[in-house]
Fold this sequence. Notes:
By secondary structure, the chain is α/β, with parallel strands linked by helices. It folds into 2 domains: 1-40 and 186-271, no CATH class; 43-184 and 274-455, Alkaline Phosphatase, subunit A. 32% of the residues lie in helices and 15% in strands. It contains 12 helices and 15 strands. The chain has helices at 30-35, 56-59, 104-112, 131-139, 186-194, 199-212, 221-225, 233-263, 288-304, 333-337, 343-368, 426-436, and strands at 11-14, 17-20, 44-49, 62-64, 67-69, 84-91, 148-151, 310-314, 323-324, 329-332, 371-372, 375-376, 381-386, 402-405, 416-425. The protein has a 7-stranded mixed sheet with strand order 7-8-3-13-14-6-15, with helices on both faces. A hairpin with a 2-residue loop joins strand 1 and strand 2 (17-20).
Amino acid sequence: MKDYPISRRTVLKGLGVSMALPFLEAMLPKLAYSQQAAAAFPRRMAVCYVPMGVLYRDYTVTGSGRNFMFSKSLQPLARFRDDLLILDGLTCDKARPHLDGVGDHIRAQAAFLTGTQAKKSVNDISLGISMDQLAAQRVGTRTRFASLEVGCEGARSGACEIGYSCAYYNMSWRSATVPAPKETNPQAVFDRLFGGPSAAEAQVNQAQRARYNQSILDFVMDDARSLDNRLGANDQRRVDEFMSSIRDIEHRIAGFTAQTNSVLPEMERPREIRLPSSTARGELDVDYRQHIRLMWDLIAVAFQTDTTRVATHVVATELTNRSYRQIGIPGGHHEISHHLFIREKMDQFARINQFHFEQFAYALGRLKAMPEGNGSVLDNCMIMYGSGIGEGSLHNHEELPILLAGKAGGTLDTGRHIRYARNTPVCNLYLEMLDRMGCSESSFGDSTGRLRNLG
């Protein structure tokens, strides 16, 4: 048997379809695969943003190092204890006013990944490149897509918080003046990941799938069968499992899109799903849990197939006032975050926090279930969870809720709770993450040095 029976860049092709495969034993020398050599598998990075911070009462973790206890809010992540770093003491200073007055929410989201103060203007926007886009510029040439930006709430335009452009509600920025908008439609993300290089063929494929209720897999089965005699039993099983997961995602997207179209009947196939922000609660009644999870599924598949190595997921936008009827909370997120330490509202805010940690746990479970070498895709990832606000009711930007999951190819020593000095810039963490992505920088944003004790 040859060292490389098939290329690591093997894709299954059909009319308007280009489907990359997960890493298989046949793509790597046996020794490298069995030992899971660090150089054999790429490192990936994703950032998940959740607005309005947390309720400190239920979030704060006790104990340090490996001797910590999960707080009430973090209980959904307890099964991933050995995959997590809980990082306390980090600050997003550029989200603070610095004489610019009101605007804590929009500044928080804008500064979170840039470490830069947003210029207070509606038309003359200026910020800075975000950490994820800096990584994408450096490593993005090695994958089909340099990065993937997704979210669950649509973009806004014009003026938002007093004096600030709505453009600042983008978390990812390619430059000081060019944001990287997120895609909110799961079907559009799916089509982007698996569409062929020809836009015309991709449109024909989409139309044919819709007309005849076909799966995207129907277009690549001939190509898939041609691989059988070059794959061992383990690889064949892995490809079958991968195909099953794609079909499952397709079915769930179809159900979600049908539900969304029934909510927005005037839009045949929405390119952007506009969900409640500061609008009236209950404007749309879509399955928010399903929406978040579908986006995580798509990021996971993109990482598994090395279609991209950099992703961001904005599960909700700052100032969103969406309701959480699915968990028995009809009030709006922003309204409840201003709990003023009223017990009923604090309890509701804590349940919203826990809901979001549950979705993050789902994402980690998906990545951990994807085998890669002797471990999983999660082992070669850094998945960050955070917010640009600390305690929701205080609008503060220190003591941020920051989690880092995955071992980054064995370079992160997980399973610990680490407390750093108060007001340590979160950008210090970004320098370490960039290092592990192979794009070392001397500084980033308002960094003061590297965040030590991670590995």
